[in-house]
UniProtKB/TrEMBL annotation:
This is Transport system permease protein. The chain crosses the membrane at residues 52-79, 100-127, 139-157, 164-181, 201-219, 240-263, 283-304, 311-336, 371-398, 410-430. It comes from Culicoidibacter larvae. Keywords: Membrane, Transmembrane, Transmembrane helix. The keyword Transmembrane helix applies. The lineage of its organism: Bacteria, Bacillati, Bacillota, Culicoidibacteria, Culicoidibacterales.
Amino acid sequence: MEFMKIVELLVVGAVGALAAILANRGIAVFNDGLRPVMPEFLDGKIGRKELAATSFALSFGLVIGFGIPVSIGASILLVHSVLLATDIIGTWSPSGKKGIIIAGAVGAVYGVLLTLGLQLVIDAFALLPINFLDALAKVGSPIVVAFAVFPAIAVAYQHGFKKGAITFLATAASMFLVNWINMLQVLQINGTNIKLSVEGMSLLVGMGFLIGFAISIKGDGNANQQLVSIFLERVKRIKANWIILAVIGGLVSAATSMALMAGDPISLNLMSQGNFTEAALAAGARGIGFIPLVFSTAIVTGVYSPAGTTFVFVAGILLQGNPIVAFIVGFIIMFVEIMLLNGVAKGLDRFPGIREMGEHIRTAMNKVLEVALLIGGALAAEAIVPGVGFFWVAGLYLLNRTMKKPVVDLAVGPIAAISLGIIINLVYLVEQGILMIFGG
């Protein structure tokens, strides 16, 4: 096995081991829904069995139905497939030193097997009679363009349709303008044409409107400061574990810099296409959206996220091919985040629009992803079986909504495309078997 491949396995294995230990000790969990449950366990109000069952119920479906299918489509691990599973591993492991050892060992093995397994799955797809892996890449293609619209959607959620429409039109105008500049080759340095990123520039325009509208809302409340006062001991608990949290921040950043891992489907697909600047912009915007959620839940629960506010992914994307530097920068980012817990809470009080903006960014990104992945899944399915793909994806999407326990909407497009590819191969094998038996 090549040296770099061994290093890659060690890095992902280390992320899995440390994240599972953090979940086992109740220091950090990735699932935002699980974090508020952790104090109940830490205070002894619920047992480990109840915590483990809750963790499994909250995370398993997302690992199988969302994290892994999206990862297969782009050949990069979506962090959800790693850190949601380590939440389960950590909470299912027993308490005490024995639990730390079990969680660490199982987490490391899971990380390594997931990395190897993903490559094995990709290699296995290439051996199928009808290789649909190339068509599967279309799942992420709409995301590259569609993600630029999320600031306008977030503005509409937060400030109403009118301001959302203004942001949308400004974003669309910037797309036309940048396309025009690129087409006419207006920007040149020493005779070399400079091509601007259409998606990146339009995202910047949208983010400008989003932040501008948000900071226009002033406030003098002190809700977050009061939270810090009330839950001072829990903030101290997070700060007491800053070293181990900073280490996993560094590891996640290093894994991202090696293109092994991504924090969200948007940046993952952009990374897989080599658009690292746009991927960093998307990851940065996502990080802004997660500041209020991660900081508020951390202050209230005393439990942090192993990926922090997700800015460690931005560092990893910008430092492609430099895992050691990415580790150091990710370590520092996580340390700074933890030390700023009190200060950021006060800042969010001063600009309540920024605090509320986070929730709207997350909602807007999820909505854009749902639409983009559904369209991408339909395009991929149609490329796999022309004339059937659109029917297949539309049918599964609507049928899923009638299920008692539906798959999350984000995952329907990728799952539908993969399932159609597998079915068409099975049909091909059956057809070949019939021909062999009866001749033809």
